[in-house]
Amino acid sequence: MTTRLELSGQGLTSLTGVSLPDSLEYLDLYDNRLTSVPGELWSLSGLRVLNLAANRLTSVSPAIGALRQLHTLDLGHNELSALPDEIGELPGLTEYLYLSDNRLTEFPAALCSLGRLKYLGCTDNRISTLPDDLSGLTSLRELRLYGNGLTALPESLGTLSPLRELHLRRNRLTSLPDSIGELSELRQLDLRENRLTTLPASIARLSKLDKLDLRWNKELREPSWLADFEALGCMVLR
C-alpha cells in the first residue's frame, strides 16, 4: 500500500510541524506558498511521486539526487532560474518531469542524462537555445517546449526516435533541422506562432504524423509536397 501525504492548496508557507514519515512514497504540496522545503524531504529515499508545483520556490537542493526511486517530479509554476545537476542523476525518473512556467533561461544540460524519461515539459520559460546533444533522452515520448525564445533546434533532435509529440509553438524559429524527418514515431507536431519561412522536405517522411499545426507563421511558403502529405491522412492546420 502506497504511503501518501496530500497537502495541496493549504496555504502553507513552511512545513514546520508537518510529519514526513520515512515510508512516504507520494507527496503532494501543490498550490501552497512555500519558498523552501526542509532538508529532511530529500532523505525520503522511497519517494516515488513529488509535486511541488505552484509554490514560490527559487531553488532546488542538490540533495534531490538522493531520491533514487522518484519517477514523477512536478516543479512547474515556481520561480526557478536553474536546476541542480543532480536531477540528471535520478535513475528512477521515468514517467514525468514538469518544469513549465519558471524562469529558466537555459535548458538544463543535466536533463539530457535522463535516458528513461518519457515526458518532459519545459514550456513558458525563457529558454533561447537547446544543448547541441539531445541524444541521451532515448526514451522520450512527449516534449513540450512552447512559450520560450527558441531560435533554432539542434540536428540531434532527430535522434529522439521514440518521440510521439513535439510541441514548439510560440517560439522564434525561422527554420527546422532536416533531422526532424528521422522522428519516425511522431504523431503530433505543433509549430504555431513561429517565424518559419520554409519547411524541410524530410517532414514528408513522417508516415505516422496525423497532425501538423502551421498556423500563424506569416511568412511560411507552403511546399509543394504538403498537399500530398495531407491527402495521405495528416491533418494540416494552416
UniProtKB/TrEMBL annotation:
<dbReference type="Pfam" id="PF00560">
    <property type="entry name" value="LRR_1"/>
</dbReference>
<dbReference type="InterPro" id="IPR001611">
    <property type="entry name" value="Leu-rich_rpt"/>
</dbReference>
<feature type="domain" description="Disease resistance R13L4/SHOC-2-like LRR">
    <location>
        <begin position="64"/>
        <end position="168"/>
    </location>
</feature>
<protein>
    <submittedName>
        <fullName>GTP-binding protein</fullName>
    </submittedName>
</protein>
<dbReference type="GO" id="GO:0005737">
    <property type="term" value="C:cytoplasm"/>
</dbReference>
<dbReference type="Pfam" id="PF23598">
    <property type="entry name" value="LRR_14"/>
</dbReference>
<dbReference type="InterPro" id="IPR003591">
    <property type="entry name" value="Leu-rich_rpt_typical-subtyp"/>
</dbReference>
<keyword id="KW-0677">Repeat</keyword>
<dbReference type="Pfam" id="PF13855">
    <property type="entry name" value="LRR_8"/>
</dbReference>
<dbReference type="InterPro" id="IPR032675">
    <property type="entry name" value="LRR_dom_sf"/>
</dbReference>
<dbReference type="InterPro" id="IPR050216">
    <property type="entry name" value="LRR_domain-containing"/>
</dbReference>
<dbReference type="InterPro" id="IPR055414">
    <property type="entry name" value="LRR_R13L4/SHOC2-like"/>
</dbReference>
<keyword id="KW-0433">Leucine-rich repeat</keyword>
